Amino acid sequence: MQKLFAISTLFVTLMLLGMCGCGGDEEKPVEPKPEPTTPEPMLPPEGFISSWDVISINDEDPLAFVNADEPDEEDRPKINTENFYFEFTEDNKWTLNLKFEMVEFPEDPNRDDPEKAGKVELSGNWSGTYGIDDTVLSLVKEEPDVDITSVPEDFLDNAFEVSLVEAKNEILEKFNTHVFKPFAKTRFAIEGETLTLIATGSVENIMVLEKR
């Protein structure tokens, strides 16, 4: 009789412990998953927020690629650059301002006559956003605003059988190939008044800029 009572008591005790255990599991609060966080963008180094004149690309005049199709210098028109500079702002925006003219075309029969000589003028504004990760600068480009004019108006058509639209598209393509694609992601360094951009691609393109 005592043995039966002891077994019954043990059985009831085990049941109670099991119920308490289950209740504990049910009452255990579910911890919320942490919200994903977006890392804060890195602040640019001191002196970066400024306007920078483009001095050279790969140790050449920064607009040398415009005439690169003509291997002989005597067959190239002269390029007069008025503006070619980047501007970086605190709100992670950048702009590139360019204005230049091409004169003294070898194909122009009036090249030696300042009154009648033909010329091509281009002014453009490129813009976008930038990001900095340690010493790497990344540029995102938006659609540019570019204007090209020919003086006289039919100069390009008469001298080269090329329309203004075709000339504009060709220059834009050269800019994408020689300026934006190689330097969309670069390592950068600031030394005094000089900013150097070194492309991270397989070809080490280098752009040198000086503070305006």
Describe this structure as you would to a colleague:
With 212 residues, the protein is of the alpha+beta class. The chain has 3 helices and 9 strands; from the N terminus they run αββββββααβββ. It has helices at residues 2-27, 155-160, 164-180, and strands spanning 51-57, 78-88, 93-103, 119-133, 136-141, 145-151, 185-191, 194-199, 206-211. The chain has an 8-stranded antiparallel β-barrel. A hairpin with a 2-residue loop joins β7 and β8. The termini are far apart. The mean pLDDT is 85.
Short description:
23% of the residues lie in helices and 36% in strands.
* pLDDT < 50 stretches: none
How many helices? The count is 3
Helix content: 10-25%
Class per helix and strand makeup:
alpha+beta
Strand content: 35-45%
Radius of gyration: 34 Å
Strand order of the largest sheet: 1-2-3-4-5-7-8-9
Q: What is the average per-residue confidence, as pLDDT, rounded to a whole number?
A: 85
- Helix/strand order, N-terminal first: HEEEEEEHHEEE
Can you summarize the main beta sheet? 8 strands, antiparallel, barrel
Task: Offer a few descriptive terms.
23% helix, 212 residues, single chain, 8-stranded antiparallel beta barrel, elongated, 9 strands, alpha+beta
